[in-house]
């Protein structure tokens, strides 16, 4: 009972937002990781591979430029 829960880190921006669609970069965690980061899986992330989403985050602050107005900065407790 005394354990402290640490949210899962987003595979795209590394913020600890807990999975699902990350409010910091708008990547939807679909289980993709470094092992298959160059694969375009389709689904909720559309035509983005995780590698491309990471590059977009570095450049635009969002997993895709179209999400720039939908994201927010990571809160202090979410930062890697």
From TrEMBL:
Protein origin, superkingdom: Bacteria
Domain Cysteine-rich CPCC: 9-78
UniProt-listed InterPro entries: Cys_rich_CPCC
Stored Pfam families: Cys_rich_CPCC
Protein name (Swiss-Prot/TrEMBL): Cysteine-rich CPCC protein
Organism, as annotated: Micromonospora kangleipakensis
């Amino acid at each position: 009972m005394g354990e402290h829960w640490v949210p899962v880190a987003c595979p795209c921006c590394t913020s600890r937002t807990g999975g699902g669609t990350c409010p910091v970069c708008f990547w939807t965690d679909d289980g993709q990781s470094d092992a298959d980061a160059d694969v375009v899986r389709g689904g909720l992330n559309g035509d983005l591979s995780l590698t491309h989403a990471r590059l977009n985050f570095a450049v635009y602050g969002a997993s895709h430029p179209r999400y720039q107005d939908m994201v927010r900065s990571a809160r202090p407790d979410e930062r890697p």
